[in-house]
Amino acid sequence: MKGKILVTGGTGYIGSHTVVELQNAEYEVVVIDNLSNSNIGVLDGIERITGIRPAFKQIDVCDKEALEQLFQEYPGIKGIINFAASKAVGESVKEPLKYYRNNLVSVINLLELMPKYNIEGFVFSSSCTVYGQPDAEYLPVTESAPRKKALSPYGNTKTICEDIICDTIHSGAPFKSIILRYFNPIGAHPTAEIGELPNGVPQNLLPFVTQTAIGIREKLSVFGDDYNTPDGSCIRDYINVVDLAKAHVIAVDRMISGKSLDNVEIFNLGTGRGLSVLELIRTFEKVTGVKLNYQIVGRREGDIEKVWANPEKANNVLGWTAKETVEDTLMSAWRWQLKLRERGLC
Ligand code: WQD
Question: Which one of 28, 65, 172, 273 is at 20 to 30 Å from 208 when CA atoms are compared?
Fold first, then answer.
């Protein structure tokens, strides 16, 4: 065993895939989650894949006393990967304080407790949302592109948390941090044992695509075909969730083995390729053989026209590259949707 890692939000979408990769890399994992947007059954999927059931406590990261108890019960935690956060953009506009409380207090609690328990590294899930719509000269976007004012309270929490972490590290805090800016994570584990489980009507593109393909949704709305892009639909950098998870293992290794070049480092996690909504739909149809019922509708308020990553820093410094093809990734999402149907979960 390499060391003990705490994964907050570890039963969530990206969290669960990361727990699998950490266990595959022989880390001992402690998962906490308040189960507000996931369920305990995810641990069964993790166990079926890895043969190991991670330690689990139902804890809200905003509850500092519960965190103290956890650190006492599981001494020797070396690193924290913090996924626990509220993440629905639309909801954040309606309930900003819920977002500021959940996303900021949780990070502050963890950073405050880390020195007391000698925890060496903190990985934070940030987002390409901090770049907003990059000006043309910054596409593909590198880590040094300017951050823009967030369009939602959710996005703003990512920017503020980045600042909280940087300020804390610069004040001389005795630990390191790696901030990972995700582009658009999609797909599921190739075993279809874990995947994305959206609550209610999906807001993100791919779960809406797979739910339409299986007949839960009547049709997919494509938000706009009049953007300044080759086919008029928006462009994103869709990154396979297992590839993304693997970057977290590298980040943890790097911090706790003293390889970080800086006490706080920031990396984009994307493929470097931009794909339009219509291209994604066509590729999904091609690989699954399922025809998608979709309709072009008006633009969605606040949407970014085009953004994709320049992942060279992660490629060169972390030695990490997104490996999965978009075809295999879309197929994994479809297999996961079929598995949910088979289990009567949708
Ligand atoms: C992708 C594309 C939509 C749904 C998300 C998060 C954001 C940040 C990045 C996390 C867009 C189009 C979607 C649908 C559609 N990540 N679309 N019909 O907008 O990039 O944002 O990822 O921290 O905070 O919200 O992702 O999946 O919502 O949309 O046409 O029913 O699909 O317009 O172009 P987005 P998304």
Answer: 273
Is 131 noted as a catalytic residue in this protein?
Answer: no
pTM equals: 0.98
Strand, helix or coil at 60?
coil
Q: Are 95 and 138 in contact (CB under 8 A)?
A: no
CA 50 to the chain's CA centroid: 21
Residue with tokens 């590290």: 169
Omega of the bond leading into 75 within 30 degrees of 0 (cis): no
Question: 86: domain CATH number?
Answer: 3.40.50.720
- Structural domain containing residue 233: 4-342
Which of 99, 131, 154, 238 does the annotation list as catalytic? 154
* Average pLDDT of the chain, as a whole number: 97
Which whole number is the average pLDDT over 185-213? 96
Q: Which atom of ligand 1 is nearest to the CA of 233?
A: 34
Number of domains within the chain: 1
* Residue that has been written with the tokens 């066509």 in this structure: 282
CB atoms within 10 A of CB 99: 24
Over residues 68-77, the pLDDT tens digits come to 999 999 999 9
Determine which residue's CA is closest to atom 19 belonging to ligand 1.
Answer: 303
Best probe residue, ligand 1, of 124, 127, 156, 204 (max atoms within 8 Å of C-beta):
204
Mean pLDDT on 37-55 = 97
